[in-house]
Structure formats: structure tokens, C-alpha cells
Design brief:
seven-stranded parallel sheet, two-stranded parallel ribbon, Rossmann fold, 9 strands, alpha/beta, single chain
Length: about 240
Amino acid sequence: MAVALIQGASGGIGKALVQEALASNRFDQVIVTARDPSVLSWSDPRIVKVALDLCDDDSIERAQASVSACADRLNLVVTTAGVLRDESLGIAPEKKLTDLRRASMRHVFEVNCFGPFLWYAALAPLLRHRETLCIATLSARVGSIGDNRLGGWHSYRASKAAQNMLTQNLSLELRRTNPNAVVIGLHPGTVDTALSKPFQSAVAADKLFTPEFSAKSLWSVISSAQPEQSGKVIAWDNQAIVP
């Protein structure tokens, strides 16, 4: 039985990726998560809804138990968690070093880096097999150290760079037991979601993607990803991003 697991199914990109997974007809089950799964409206019999908050260890433990109860292995795991700003918490991308605040940095790292990989750690028993496996984590081009020519956005850039390092580490670890495993980061482009809303005025119209367009492009990347790409961050147009 082929099983996909998509975290963040209530968000724009996550929801569109679930649609791609269902339309592909590759999976017998598509497990979808949200902090409040009651907001998820799918009635497809392949869908299994699970509550998950990546910033809560107890929630991760409960979600892992729910996933394990309906699957003994996973073939696709996608994590779409990400935060750049949160007005309710006073979090905004820092323009200069003196804007850094410990609480804001901690939250950005919790969502963008700690949460996804603590989730993968909890799922480890379902990932250690020799069948087809792809683990894809939503990253960002601004997490590239080699491509950074503007500076700023300190916490977001650093959290994504750390996420990318963990992607490479996990790819090397899984390769030892499953040479066909693929672990990648995904750059979705600039997508018309709440995360990018305050910054869209500087984006050319043809570079601002709908969640559906971005998800379709990312699904193509996921579907065609090869073991030799494992550990890399790949953009929506299937181009590798410099580390």
C-alpha cells in the first residue's frame, strides 16, 4: 500500500499539494494534517485527517501514533510549515542586526526548522524501509548562503539555511539503508499566500504564483526527483539552488 503524508493541508500550498496527490492516483492513502483537522473538507475515502501542531511535542507524539495506526510505512512525506512574519506575535523580517529579538528568532526557528525535523524524527520507524521514499520540506531560495547578496531577514534566512543542512544530513542517513530514498528541500517561488502578502508589491505579476500553479510545479519536482538529487534544495522550475 502506497501512503502519502502531507503536513499543513489547511494552507494554500499544502491544500493544493493534497489535490495533486489525489489526482495522481499513486497513493492508497493520503494522510493530511492541520492544527484543527475539522477545517479540512475532503470527503475522498483515501484521505485520513490528523491533528498536528509542529511546535508542540505532545501533539507530534499523538500525531505519530495516529499515523502509525493506519500505516506501517510512508512513501511520501511533505512538510509545508513556514513563518516569515506574525503580527500577533510581533514577528517581522529583520532589516538589520539590531532588530533581532530572542523570542522572535526562537519562534521562526521552531516553525521553519525544529518542527519539521522533530516530526521526521518521530516518524523514523515509518521511514526506515527500502521501498520508494521521498521526503520534501518547503524551503526558500533566501536560505541559500551562496545566493545571499542583500542580507536582512536574518531569522528567516538562518532558519531556512539550518533546515537545508538538516535536509542534507537526513539524506545521508537514509541513503545508508535505502539508496533509493530522496530527501529534498523545495523552493515554491513567490506564492500568493498570507506569508508573502506584505511583500507582493515588489514582485512582477508573472513571478507571483497561485498556490495551485506552485503546487503543480512542486509536484512535478517531487514526482521526478532522483536519488542523486537527494540533499539538495530544488526550485519550482526543477533548478537546484546553490547551498
